[in-house]
Amino acid sequence: MGKDVIVACDFASAKETFDFLDRFQGKKPFVKIGMELFYAEGPAIVREIKARGHKIFLDLKLHDIPNTVKKAMAVLSRLDVDICNLHAGGTIRMMEAALEGLTRPDGTRPLLIAVTQLTSTDQESMENDLMIHAPIADVVMHYAENAKRAGLDGVVCSPLEAQKVHDRCGRDFLTVTPGVRFADGDVGDQKRVMTPVEAKKIGSDYIVVGRPITASADPVAAYERCVAEFVG
Ligand code: C5P
After folding, report:
1. How many domains does the chain have?
2. Residue 33 is part of which domain span?
3. Which residue CA neighbors atom 8 of ligand 1 most closely?
4. Residues in contact with ligand 1 (CB, 6 Å cut-off)
5. Per annotation, catalytic residue among 15, 32, 55, 61
6. How far is residue 43 CA from its own chain's centroid?
7. For residue 87, what is the domain's CATH number?
8. The ligand 1 atom nearest the CA atom of 188
9. Is 61 part of the annotated catalytic residue set?
10. Pairing between strand 4-8 and 206-209?
């Protein structure tokens, strides 16, 4: 796995998803399937996208007791996805159990990355709702270090945190970063954004890009621009 652009297929149905992917004609972008599409279409959508030759990041953010997460991860590993994820807030033990569940009998497994604090959580909601009183930047780094200790492969983080995560957890610890926008594009509801060029400079391993590609009048051209700017 090297640097790549992951296209967030935030669609509500298989039809919309395949209408979108059919436009790529022979190109096989790395695809992110999130909760909306997975809950609408089930494992069949994963199998079909995989059968068409795409790599898949299955973004289901598991968070439960270790035994339940372990068993759920075993099911996901049989779907042959390339990356899956969970919440680091589920504790180191839950992350270790997830890795066990994910590992196939032949020793192979999808990459496993952790969500630290969601970017929708801010200092105030973390303190008031979660009763966590440390600075949010420290919490994000602590959770990233926990993920590393548990043996995970990396974290989902803001592009602005990627460099610090690499400094703390090592260059090989993957940073997968959403919140990417073209310099001349709409920011939408993302608050802290970076261009693909900037994300490359600060060392993101994968960028997750949704609307700048899916809502573009020419999604294939937008995808190619992303690849040219990020992978180059
Ligand atoms: O359309 P856009 O490029 O904003 O999509 C970004 C994708 O990354 C969405 O699927 C969103 O749910 C996901 N994501 C995010 N911020 C996070 C974690 C995931 O935007 N912190």
Report:
1. 1
2. 4-230
3. 178
4. 8, 10, 34, 118-119, 156, 178-179, 190, 208-212
5. 61
6. 18
7. 3.20.20.70
8. 4
9. yes
10. parallel
Q: What distance in Å separates the CA atoms of residue 8 and residue 170, rounded to the nearest whole number?
A: 26
Q: Which atom of ligand 1 is nearest to the CA of 32?
A: 10
Burial profile 141-156: b = 16 or more Cβ within 10 angstroms, e = fewer: bbbbbbbbebebbbbb
Smallest CA-to-CA distance from 216 within 193, 186, 175, 177 is with: 186
Rounded to the nearest angstrom, the distance between the alpha carbon of 34 and the centre of ligand 1 is 9
Print pLDDT tens along the chain (232 aa): 579 999 999 999 999 999 999 999 989 999 999 999 999 999 999 999 999 999 999 999 999 999 999 999 999 999 999 999 999 999 999 999 999 999 999 999 999 999 999 888 899 999 999 999 999 999 999 999 999 999 999 999 988 899 999 999 999 999 999 999 999 988 887 777 899 999 999 999 999 999 999 999 999 999 999 999 999 8
**Residues with Cβ within 8 Å of residue 112, at least 6 apart in sequence:** 73, 83, 84, 85, 86, 95, 98, 99, 102, 152, 153
pTM of the model: 0.96
